[in-house]
Amino acid sequence: MRQLTFDLDVLRTFITGVDMGNFAKAADRLGRSTSAVSAQLKKLEQQTGIPIFQKAGRGLVLTDAGETMLAYARRLIDLNDEAASAVHGIELEGWVRLGLQEDFGETLLPNILGQFARAHPKVRIEARVARNAELVDRVTSGKLDLALAWNTSAPPQNSQRVLDVPMCWVGSSSQNEVWELSSGEPLPLAALEAPCLLRTAATAALDKAGIPWRLAFISPSLGGLWAATAAGLGVTIRTPIGLPKSVRPIGREINGLPALPMLGLDLHRADAEPAPVTAKLAAIILQALQDILPADAKAA
Hints:
Radius of gyration: 22 Å
Shape: globular
Mean pLDDT: 83
Order of helices and strands: HHHEEHEHEHEEEEHEHEEHEHE
Number of helices: 10
Structural class: alpha/beta
Strand order of the largest sheet: 4-3-5-12-6-13
Strand content: 15-25%
Largest sheet: 6 strands, mixed
Helix content: 40-55%
């Protein structure tokens, strides 16, 4: 079998188009014409010798081969970009202070730290996993250089909306549902201590739907919230990101729970023109997010 050498530029276009859900938008993002993007995708299908797209109504969706190609394309581009950073940024020195919302502590932080350390071994990262309000306060006061946090009504000045993530009701993976609308009982809620954006969204949605509720468990940390939810003490609200195996999203149509809004995810910077080490770390964060996001997340 003839060995294939994929064009990384074509793979980058392929990934961008899939992530944005529209190859016309991808053309704008990449600074190319729509016809040029179409030619690149045709080239990719010719190289593979297998269709990677199929029609679905007026649009296109990935075939099984396309899904496989996408996974490998992401790995190839990640490795290419990491190599470029390592070669051109090897002399970067200093330190950068990063803050992450609790949901990303286990799912995103190890990947970020490992990738950045390999590319920039002379740079020291100081990482902090904390609640949303604390992260925003630390960026505003200059105690953090970067923070990935949920959108607030008054975000810091140098904030970038990364994407919108769906919120969902979450219950125990191992126990029967603790509540049904037909029961007439208040919904038991497991929640983080106030202030909490998701707790506020949950109670607002329930009040709007006329569904009674009660706080069955309050925790200062996400770990405590997962433990209570897994034990069946109550239903909670989070996003699909970072859910442990002990809990699972609940279909609202089964339990009579109301629909929930999307939640904005922002990357906050302490400075409008960050230092090179901070800018490099921000780029790695944005790329790493693509590997853990749910399918219904929307790019900003």
